[in-house]
Amino acid sequence: MRPRLFGSLIGASIAAFSLAPQTVGASMLENQLISAAETGDPDKVKALLKEGASIEARDASGATALLAATHENRVDAARALIEAGADVNAKDKIQDSPYLYAGARGHLDILKLTLANGADLKSTNRYGGTALIPAAERGHVETVKTLIEAGIDVDHVNRLGWTALLEAIILGSGGEKHIEIVRLLIKAGADVNLADGEGVSPLTHARQRGYGKIERLLADAGAR
């Protein structure tokens, strides 16, 4: 029995060894794919995909190659990955996806690519917010306009109890970009009386911060 057992162990070891180069090779390809996406090399991305690199491979943070490209706003690499079928809604460990990150950071070209290729407008980030909410907060006017035109819910409430309108006021600067975002949200039908979790209205927040132009926009839209 012992010789048989020894032989079985040897056979298993040889089989495992024979598989190891393939596993390592695949990992190397996928690491190279993520690196090529991050540095913005679409030709390398395409070549690695042809060699068999998994398009949905993830790094230690859970980011796919497409999310890595989105982090650095590498439009051509992102386009190559999306055209090859990359999932624009694939989330990393902190619940960012290419679509959500592009929206939050104002990476407009990549955002438009994700919207044209299956972006889930209802998907939410780790704060329970849609892409529109951080875009409004950070003053990304064209991003807000693009998301509104795509049909996103302008009155979605995140876990903080805030809508895009509230975040534009509470976390915005009160400057021209945030004034324009408030105007866009009102035009899109945002509820100007939808208060935060403590019952404080957008108008009250604007008034408390001395944002006169925003206050007038809200009042003209029926805010109380």
From TrEMBL:
ANK repeat extents: 61-93, 94-126, 127-159, 160-197
Keyword Repeat: yes
Pfam name, any one: Ank_2
InterPro entries to which the protein is assigned, alphabetical: Ankyrin_rpt, Ankyrin_rpt-contain_sf
Keyword terms: ANK repeat, Repeat
Domain of life of the organism encoding this protein: Bacteria
Protein name: Ankyrin repeat domain-containing protein
Species this protein is from: Ensifer adhaerens (Sinorhizobium morelense)
